[in-house]
């Protein structure tokens, strides 16, 4: 069986054979993500929050993006497999979703204005991850 026939079979099944190279779109998404996060940080600095609350906001923002990336990765891996995912993967996805929602609630309680920029950053991150598949 030649390499070309294996690649054709993978394409027919919808399996990605190669990742696309890093390019201008990746840089644009990174710039948009950085801009939204910078706006969130600048709006937090202008608020009445203490240094400890600002640090908590930054940590929760990183946690939010990390959990979104984890959920995305788990769901993409589950979609690429032919068999259904196991209970451990489902429990991990559910836990990551619960942590994500709890982080959003905590962020909104700290600063509703800055949380808007975090949500926009999450949307940009999701669009970027969708394009990287």
Summary keywords:
133 residues, flat, 81% helix, mainly alpha, 5 helices, single chain, 0% strand
**pLDDT < 50 runs, ≥5 residues:** none
Spatial gap, N to C terminus = 27 Å
- Indicate the proportion of strand residues: under 5%
Supply the number of helical segments. Answer: 5
Report helical residue fraction.
over 70%
Structural class from helices and strands?
Answer: mainly alpha
Whole-number count of domains = 1
How big is the Rg?
Answer: 19 Å
Order of helices and strands: HHHHH
Mean pLDDT level: 77
What gross morphology would you assign? flat
Number of separate strands: 0
Largest sheet: none
Question: What would you note in describing this structure?
Answer:
The chain is flat and about 50 Å long. The mean pLDDT is 77. It is 81% helix and 0% strand. It is mostly helical. Helix 2 packs antiparallel against helix 5 (112-132), helix 3 (51-80) runs antiparallel to helix 4 and helix 4 runs antiparallel to helix 5. The protein contains 5 helices and no strands.
